[in-house]
Amino acid sequence: MDYANDETAPAFQRIADRNGKWGYRWVPLVSDENFTHCSLDVLMLRPGKAGGLIVDTDIDNRLKTLFDALQIPTSQSQLPETPASDEDPFFVLLEKDSLISSVSVTTDRLLARARFTRNDFPDSLTLSADQSANRDYVVLIISVAIHATKTTMGNLHLIG
């Protein structure tokens, strides 16, 4: 169904129709259309010795990979042929990564392989022995602040 011009449809369905490509319908939270941008505060936890921001890794490439993962893909080759049933619409943080206005990165040591497991929440932070030994494996904790660049009725809730 085409929701793009249906004023009775939920807003996210109209946004998804306007941002459809490659068989996917995207709903970015931060977009030019909403006059929003965001700042990211990233805590990077990694196995190995404690140290500075750059320890045997290329922080620039890691951050670019993160930014790419947070936006609507720029190439069809980044996607499977068709979306899964629970990927319509597909919610993403960013319409494009140029809407990131600032980034703060803090690195620290990932100390434990295991963590407390909640039955009602997927345990995505428990590391296997292989992951703990892999210096390229990191856990990211990302805080996002969304800001309006122009006040509109659609983003009035962000002012305050």
TrEMBL record:
It comes from the Bacteria. This is Uncharacterized protein.
